[in-house]
Design goal:
- This protein has six helices and three strands; from the N terminus they run αβαβαβααα.
- By secondary structure, it is an alpha/beta fold.
- It has a single domain, classed as Thiolase/Chalcone synthase (Peroxisomal Thiolase, Chain A, domain 1).
- Strands 2-1-3 form a three-stranded parallel β-sheet, sandwiched between helices.
- The longest helix is centred in the N-terminal third of the chain and has 15 residues.
- It is globular.
- The protein starts with 26 loop residues before the first helix and ends with a helix.
Length: 155
């Protein structure tokens, strides 16, 4: 097995739910910001070397539904070819993604990965699950990211 190292860590600041500085910030936007900050802090890392982004979220409702990792990849400075995986293990979701990325690296399946977690109590508790809004920036720049799976077979 290969050695696995954690090179750096980045996080947003803490804020109060419903009235703090992030109370209207989408989870995919927060993730993209953290990914970009990580890339800026590590200029020797070519973004094309990052093969996968693993993200854990304790709740997948509202705007936090879907593949948050993939949405964050598309919003970030990573290439569109970078994969994204989102999991739910409730409170241990972020830690689980770190273990998953480490396992992929240790077994030689992946060389470089980003892993972590995200949760916005403010955003998810304000919405009804069936009424989630899609990310406006993604709708403008990459609307195909929201294409239904059945339609992708026809492209």
């Amino acid at each position: 097995m290969k050695d696995v190292v954690i090179v750096d860590s980045v996080r947003t600041g803490l804020a109060k739910a419903f009235r703090g500085s992030f109370n209207l910030t989408r989870s995919d936007d927060m993730l993209a910001h953290c990914i970009d900050a990580l890339l800026e802090r590590n200029p020797k890392l070519d973004p094309a070397e990052v093969e996968d982004v693993y993200v854990g979220a304790a709740s997948h409702v509202g705007e936090q539904d879907g593949n948050l990792a993939r949405l964050a990849v598309v919003l970030s400075k990573l290439p569109i070819t970078t994969a994204g995986t989102t999991i739910n293990r409730f409170c241990s979701s972020g830690l689980q993604t770190i273990a998953m990325a480490a396992n992929q690296i240790a077994t030689g399946q992946t060389q470089v990965a980003i892993a972590g977690g995200v949760d916005s109590i403010s955003m998810r508790n304000r919405q009804e699950p069936a009424k989630a809004k899609q990310n406006k920036r993604l709708l403008e720049e990459k609307p195909e990211i929201f294409m239904a799976m059945g339609n992708t077979a026809e492209v």
